[in-house]
Amino acid sequence: MHTRKNTASLNDDEKRKFMNAVLALKKTIKPGHSTNIYDEFVAIHYSVISRIGLATGDGGHGGPAFLAWHREYILRFEKELQAVDPDVFLPYWKWESGNADDTDKVFTNDFLGEMGIQTSGYLSENPNSQNPDGWTVDPRLDQGNHGTTLVRNSSLNTSSLPASAVSDALNEDNFHDFRPDLESPHGTVHILVGGHMSRMTSPNDPIFFLHHANVDRIWAKWQLTHPGAANYNPNNVGRQGHRLDENMWPWDGGESDTTITSARPLLPSTDPSDTVTPRDVLDIEALDYVYDDVAGSSAWNTSSGNQNGNSRCFIATAAYGSELEPPVQFLREFRDNIILKSRFRNSFEKILDVYYSYSPSVANQMRRHKLFKHVMKYSVVWPFVALARLVAFLTKPFVKKF
């Protein structure tokens, strides 16, 4: 489990490691691929706006999957960064705070560069000591024809950032009000940064990922009081890929393609078994991260559970999609109130230590591969839940709570 931090709190070493990992993605081309890893992410974001096949139209904007699609998208970017340096995490730009420090510390020469044309620092097209290779925007991925040098608006007035709009969104009780109320100020931030950030090829500017980490953080905050599948697209509306159990492009097993011809040759190939639905990304803890000021969509609390702070039911959470689902909650209570209060506690704690050593990786594979998830759910998790319920029923007279 890793923690995404506010950019304003990063130390010099964290900033340097993050930027060096970003630069590594920009210059690394995987065998058999057509462009570098970083630009593949730009191509994906550009391409999702216009799909053809089972799904049509925009799969990541203007509909229910806006939040779910971008959560998966920036998580995959973060994992590529961590493949370069395991210490790296995706920080967030807390643009809605009203605190100038939260923005000023993002746009500095020792991090993501100042506003305006990037002529120095890590993102300068001209090679320098911070970036010996320079940062060049691929013309095939420049929807606004802004040029190969990364550019932003000349200045950014922090007082113009839409703080009150986020507060209004967080006060919404219905997902169908919350999502557009958050997507709208998110778009305002894109325009205020401007330049390459103002078009659908906006990931050309790495500030995109910090911006969307903050959008994801705000959704995670809302999920604290509106958890689980019942609070995602309850009206079951939207295009293919926007509904709860539909695959999101490009993680859809080849169901759809893009109509963006300039970007298509630059897209990475995807494994047909690598499919992701909105349901798969509802719980950030199941995705192995939290935010430094958000407990998590499942109200994560490391003070409960076993003595080492491992309180989560990783495999059951992956099987049911959220730690708030009743079978998962039951298993946690069964463990805490029966198993760990029995006279065999010491033995069970040793078994749990083994479980916590391997279960996160198993849960991650379950999330990535739907067939494996179903096999684990119905051949392992479901029978275990049934057995635990039977044990709880038989031992009920002898325990105070279960």
Report on the structure:
By secondary structure, the protein is mainly alpha-helical. The protein has 2 domains: 2-281, di-copper center containing domain from catechol oxidase (Orthogonal Bundle), CATH 1.10.1280; 301-398, no CATH class. It is 42% helix and 3% strand. A two-stranded parallel ribbon has the order 1-4. The chain has a two-stranded antiparallel sheet with strand order 2-3. Helix 8 (314-320) packs parallel to helix 10 (345-368) and helix 9 (326-337) packs across helix 11 (370-395). The chain is globular, with a radius of gyration of 22 Å. The model is unreliable at 296-310 (pLDDT under 50).
Low-confidence segments: 296-310
Specify the helix fraction band.
Answer: 40-55%
CATH arch. level architecture of the largest domain: Orthogonal Bundle
How many beta strands in the DSSP annotation? 4
Strand percentage lies at: under 5%
- The CATH homologous superfamily of the largest domain is named Di-copper center containing domain from catechol oxidase
Q: What is the CATH top level name of the largest domain?
A: Mainly Alpha
SSE sequence, one letter per element = EHHEHHHHHEEHHHH
Q: From the structure provided, what is the oligomeric state, counting identical versus distinct chains?
A: single chain
Outline the biggest β-sheet.
2 strands, parallel
The secondary structure category is mainly alpha
Going across the major beta sheet, what is the strand order? 1-4
Q: What is the arithmetic mean of pLDDT?
A: 89
As for the CATH topology of the largest domain, it is: di-copper center containing domain from catechol oxidase
- Total tally of structural domains: 2
What distance lies between the first and last C-alpha atoms, to the nearest angstrom?
28 Å
Write down the overall geometry: globular
